[in-house]
Amino acid sequence: MKHVLKILKKGGVVAIPTDTVYGLIALADNREAVEKIYSIKRRPRDKPLPVFVESIESAIKLLRDVPDYAIKLMETFWPGPLTVVGYASPEAPQLAVSPEGKIGVRIPSGKEIQEILQKIKAPLISTSANISGSPPLRTGDEVKSVLGKGIDYVVEGHTGTLASTVVEVTAKQPKILRKGKIGIMEIEKRLSVEVKLAEGLNLSVLYVCTGNTCRSPMAEWISRKLTINCKNIIYSSRGTNTIPGYPPPDEVVMVLKEIGIDIENHQSRMLEHQDIEAADLIICMEHKHVLQIPEPYRVKAVLLSGGSEDIEDPIGRGLAFYQLIRDKILYYLKNIWVPYFLRKFEYC
Length: 348
Fold this sequence. Notes:
- This is L-threonylcarbamoyladenylate synthase.
- Its EC number is 2.7.7.87.
- Pfam families: LMWPc, Sua5_yciO_yrdC.
- With 348 residues, the chain is an alpha/beta fold.
- It has two domains: 2-197, Alpha-Beta Complex (DHBP synthase); 203-343, Rossmann fold (3-Layer(aba) Sandwich).
- It has helices spanning 2-9, 31-41, 56-61, 68-77, 111-120, 140-147, 184-191, 215-226, 250-257, 273-278, 287-291, 319-343; strands spanning 14-16, 23-27, 51-52, 63-64, 82-88, 102-106, 124-128, 153-154, 165-168, 175-178, 196-197, 203-209, 233-239, 281-284, 301-303.
- The strands form two sheets. Strands 1, 2, 3, 4, 5, 6, 7, 8, 9, 10 and 11 form an eleven-stranded mixed β-sheet that branches. A four-stranded parallel β-sheet has the order 13-12-14-15.
- α8 packs across α12 (319-343) and α9 packs across α12.
- The N and C termini lie far apart (50 Å).
- The model has no long low-confidence stretch (mean pLDDT 94).
């Protein structure tokens, strides 16, 4: 690390593996080094770069008007893949401050970058090691091949492809500016606070039951109808134990037609790992469905009832029972979930 520190202190740019993607770092108060990063990435100059710091105390010095929930965010997820965007204090490196007076700050995890931060004791400009707008690079060889000789030194290693989650903390509620490794539900459950989503972001909602022919497709299509004017909510449904391609029972088609919904073209689909990964929120009909979500992703899962009640499977139980289940699903969507979805957006 002595060689890396020497390069940074001389105004150089270093590529280094982080807990998210390969990153470029430089001293945040060195204009020449910061300009070099913009050139290497071909990044527009009006897009400010965030900074790495060594401690929460260091981060708070760079921010002003920090709300309590922002402190809790830092304490909960740092070191880690969360970038906090707040109003910059007079102590913030001006090269990292946006025209709106904001700065992004993060404490990354990882042995190498932590050691550098502890020894250099100054904010480091940080950004993904890639051409702006292109996929992130994952190895030192990829960085050398794509970014060429503009970088002064490459620390060898490898990383994943998910960037940090970026959360703005300038209002009464946190607002997610970029989705990343830390999900919406993990933030909300750990902080007991609802987050908003920035303009341009979507909310992906996945409904889960057993066969994906009755309850979950009813919830999916009723949700579509209730939020028809909000284009930023993406609904889907899956089954934990189904044969793909099955149509809904006649009773489901009938009870949804009674409320103006045509579901005849629905075909059942099996719950796959990529569905779980892609969802922001997984709404299950029964406790057993929650338990069938792999543990690392279970923080995304909730019951439709919002409490402890399971929504029973109506299969084979007569039209009146299908109507009862439809009405329960409609009740919970209208009274719990649709208002929750819409609170995520300022423009729905």
